[in-house]
Amino acid sequence: AKAHAPDVRWVASFATDAPFFPTNLVERLLIAAQAENARIAVAKYGGYTQPVFTLWHVGLAEELRTALVEQGMRKVMAWVHQHPHVLVEFPAQDLDPFFNINTSDDLAKAETLLKKSKNK
Prior knowledge:
The chain is an alpha+beta fold. The chain has a single domain, classed as Spore Coat Polysaccharide Biosynthesis Protein SpsA, Chain A (Alpha-Beta Complex). The chain contains 4 helices and 4 strands, in the order E-H-E-E-H-H-E-H. Strand 2 and strand 3 (48-57) form a beta hairpin. The mean pLDDT is 92.
């Protein structure tokens, strides 16, 4: 990606099974990272970090790759805590923005939640 977009300074990661994440997620993470001079901004909701929803400074790419591939690191948040980072709390709302769908029951629940939120 760096070869195709050399001016890009940040990359965001998302869970593909969480359809309700905030539309202003990247904007809020970027503002917080810049305000705190952090190189990583992690979403937080309801007291829990959401490490898949993270904004990463591309300057960390090689170091992170080394930790994941060569050192076999599996706890990304342990690595995050070794670097300047900020946790960005997202406000409580009726529809959990980080609800993830892993099973058919989760999908049914998500459909119900979505219908309820549209009826408000």
